């Protein structure tokens, strides 16, 4: 069972979650619960670091950020003690979560869960601080924002859990962010692939890495509410019997920026050189588009995380001596809207309908990027909400029937 930050924000909420955990234990299950930092704690810790230093050392950042979840799980253990249960809290390191050495975005390499197993065997409820581990060189690491989801999925896989439940402040995964589209509908069932595209496209209800982990290890997820007793969304492997939604949901993100390098020579090696420079600076490039060339030169556009924009521009600037280009422009006012659906593969015309809908709203498309089960457009950030609502309406996602693929 994993509980997000808003679910443990204050003392009453911690007691509420403790009752939830106790209930599961009393029904005869062994329980491992992963908890996030309370409320906005992680944001506040990030702000505290920035107040001290412009470029905080990543190792020390992890020492700092990992404390948020440590507080939550110790408090949760106390709340469970008061309910008469044996409970023990563990840091990521104590829980045996071994990661690589990439501070602030570490990847889990292995979990040595013997200590957790021993505590479970002794009848305790086990509480694990989410979002953290210990690196191969024995430093505390964190797993990137939203990383408690990944902790939960990885522990579920390592302990061969019957179920991995992600408790949050919404009742499941919806056809769009319910905070933007009030008519969004809760999806009862999604495949790992669909959720992967939703998460990669900005639906922050599950961290991308956690969904990758679930898919790779065949972990079934149940996303549900911390506050309400109702079935949420099951995310599972695709089976042939499953009906495939043409469009299952709409995701959006507003934390990226666009860079265009114009007038580069259209010859082998140019894209490689630019992407290598960005990769060497640790920048994850998302959408990449190269124009048709004219007179032997072309333009290359790409999107990068907004936080990395200055770093990316710096890296491209460094190339100026060795790479011929006419100019670089940046746009930090973009947003992305994505349609996701496993049934898209076999249904032509979805892109056309998407573009028609945006055109009717007068929304200009700056870039287009697709996979077999996703169509993403880059638009002006201020138009995201309008685009999400128009598309939700055009594809009739509020109605249950729209989910059935009439192929
Ligand atoms: P937690 O703190 O529990 O990890 P998050 O804030 O990380 O919670 O994720 C839950 C939030 O994700 C919701 O409050 C909601 O606004 C947002 N969200 C974005 N897209 C979706 C979606 N398609 N379905 C449900 N929630 C979504
Ligand atoms: N507390 C961390 C964050 O805010 C991890 C998490 O909540 O999953 O990103
Ligand atoms: Mg989260």
The gross shape turns out to be globular
Chemical compounds bound to the protein: adenosine-5'-diphosphate, aspartic acid, magnesium ion
- Which structural class fits the helix and strand makeup? alpha/beta
The major β-sheet equals: 8 strands, mixed
Give the oligomeric state of the chains in this entry, treating copies of one chain as homo and distinct chains as hetero: single chain
N- to C-terminal distance: 37 Å
According to CATH, the fold-level topology of the largest domain is Carbamate kinase
**Number of DSSP strand runs:** 20
Strand order of the largest sheet: 3-6-2-1-9-11-12-10
How much strand? 15-25%
Mean pLDDT reading: 94
Structure description:
- The chain is of the alpha/beta class.
- 33% of the residues lie in helices and 24% in strands.
- It has helices at residues 11-26, 41-52, 58-82, 114-121, 148-158, 192-200, 208-217, 270-280, 309-318, 350-360, 384-394, and strands spanning 2-3, 32-35, 87-90, 97-99, 108-111, 125-129, 132-135, 140-142, 164-168, 189-191, 221-225, 233-236, 249-253, 256-265, 288-290, 297-305, 327-331, 334-340, 367-371, 374-380.
- An 8-stranded mixed sheet has the order 3-6-2-1-9-11-12-10, with helices on both faces. A 4-stranded mixed sheet has the order 5-4-7-8.
- α2 (41-52) packs antiparallel against α3, α6 (192-200) runs antiparallel to α7 (208-217) and α10 (350-360) packs across α11.
- The longest helix has 25 residues, at 58-82.
- The two termini are 37 Å apart.
- Bound molecules: adenosine-5'-diphosphate, aspartic acid and magnesium ion (MG).
- Adenosine-5'-diphosphate (ADP) binds next to loops.
